[in-house]
Write a structure and sequence with these properties.
The protein has 305 residues and is an alpha/beta fold. Helix content is 37%, strand content 16%. The longest helix is centred in the middle third of the chain and has 21 residues.
Length: 305
């Protein structure tokens, strides 16, 4: 649906309306699919080829086009906004800081403002790399210290979201993985494809995160929306592993050729600085959610059942 031609009319059943930005990204799309079971879903995208079979309302909108963005909000008047859109390529952000700032920070500020104006709760999907990686594991109360442009723009967006309304929520996920190819991609899918084609896969031995199943993550986002959780919440896997450890465990689970995994250091491999260890504490989430955080084995079973 092109917003320029949108004349949205309620279908009369007064279903709760959810607006998802970045809906053609890997996480955004899965959230839309999960939300569709209960809600009327409006999916904002920019620049992707969209599948016509999806049952939610696709709306093409560049979130830095504030005039069109405002029209979308006031036409739809969503009850909830799940803000996933961002430039997530960390090295690109480092090379193009102004673009990263416009998309990740300023557009988030506008979305926070519009959400408040239409009385919608805003849930913002941030990142684990707002931390510097020196004192893990990190809880929601720990002070963020980003060490690259991407992390700085995401932290600034967090502040905009939380400052605009006390009911808003910032979610910090760890790196996610999933089996199915929707829109976008993830490291697990890239690795599987390369291994199946006989290609070597470089994997870091000295950078640690808490990988999380995309299905569990999307379900958890919907659940905390329904529970009206506010403030900051970490959503991640229960295990802290290096990318090399993750790759070895997944190749073993899927019976892939692990000899093609090339173990390397993350240092001097990338343009932007990366934190060494951003393991997230999920203690708070485990007390809230009906389905607590998963081990890698449990996550693999959920994704590759």
């Amino acid at each position: 649906m092109d917003f320029q031609n949108l004349n949205y009319k309620s279908d009369g059943n007064m279903r709760t309306r959810i607006l998802v930005t970045g809906a053609s990204g890997y996480l955004g799309y899965v959230i839309c699919v999960k939300a569709l079971k209960k809600y009327e879903v409006f999916a904002l995208y920019n620049g992707s080829i969209i599948r016509s079979k999806d049952q939610f309302h696709w709306i093409k909108c560049n979130i830095t086009d504030f005039s069109t963005l405002s029209k979308v909000f006031y036409e739809i008047k969503p009850n909830y906004v799940i803000h996933c859109a961002a430039i997530s390529n960390v090295d690109f952000c480092e090379i193009n800081p102004e673009t990263a700032y416009q998309v990740n920070s300023l557009a988030s500020k506008k979305i926070a403002l519009l959400s408040k104006e239409v009385q919608a709760k805003c849930i913002y999907v941030s990142t684990d790399i707002v931390f510097d990686g020196e004192t893990p594991p990190y809880s929601e109360s720990d002070k963020p210290v980003p060490i690259q442009v991407y992390g700085k723009t995401k932290l600034e967006a967090e502040k905009y979201i939380l400052d605009h309304h006390s009911d808003n929520l910032v979610i910090r996920p760890s790196v996610f993985y999933g089996a199915e190819h929707f829109y976008g991609t993830n490291f697990a899918l890239q690795m599987i494809s390369m291994l199946q084609n006989g290609k070597r896969v470089p994997v870091f031995i000295d950078q640690f995160r808490s990988p999380v199943s995309i299905q569990w993550l999307a379900n958890s986002v919907i659940e905390v929306l329904e529970l009206n959780v506010t403030g900051i919440l970490h959503l991640a896997g229960r295990e802290s592993v290096s990318r090399a450890d993750f790759a070895e465990k997944l190749t073993s689970y899927l019976n892939l050729n692990s000899t093609l995994l090339e173990k390397v250091s993350y240092r001097n491999q990338l343009v932007a600085k990366r934190p060494r260890n951003v393991t997230l504490s999920v203690e708070k989430a485990d007390k809230i959610l009906s389905n607590p955080s998963l081990t890698l084995e449990e996550g693999f079973q959920l994704e590759w059942y």
